[in-house]
Design a protein that fits this description.
Thrombin, subunit H; alpha+beta; single chain; 209 residues; 16% helix; 6-stranded antiparallel β-barrel; 2 domains; 2 helices; 12 strands; 6-stranded antiparallel beta barrel
Length: 209
Amino acid sequence: MWLGTAKTLRDNNKLWFKKEPVVYTQGVQVLGLMGTCSGFIANKPNYIVTAAHCVNRFQITYGAIFHDGTLRMATIVAKGDFPEKGGDWAILKVNTRGYGISILEPHIEDVKSHTIVEHFRSDGMDENGKGSPEKRSRGIFLGVRKKEVRVAMAIRPGDSGGPLVLEDGRIIGIASAGYFPAGIPYAHFTPLKQVVDRLNILDQTEDKR
């Protein structure tokens, strides 16, 4: 499996970097006591999604830096059961609008193995929502196993919480961890089904107020 994936990475490398990066709503830097992580605006304009391991159970309020450098305060409103598989997600609420929304795709059963995907760092977007080459990573979607999305891709410290994006701009996962078995980079991403379900509940609660 390792050799086959390495060959696919090598054969597609030139093709990938000839393509324009996908376009999607700008990311957000999440600042907390545990350091800086990546994140992104959800499908509701005043919610931010990041990784659960980026938030501290003793901290409620976080800083959120948007693409234009604006700093807003964000409050944690929901969190997955990390380190349970599929539970590495957190939702923050920020009292601001006007930055657009992301297209979240909770149903990834139809995503084919070896589909090209991209991951963006929180500080890797310009004002048009495009990722600069040095702040984005391209890789190969390998499938879902044990409630985690597996991708042949290298991710670095600070990437956690960032989005995994299809070429059409749909976000299908949240960066959770990276590994290098047999010297080949692999990354795990959290699927979005739990996140989307909780966002819908939060939205219904807002409507009733």
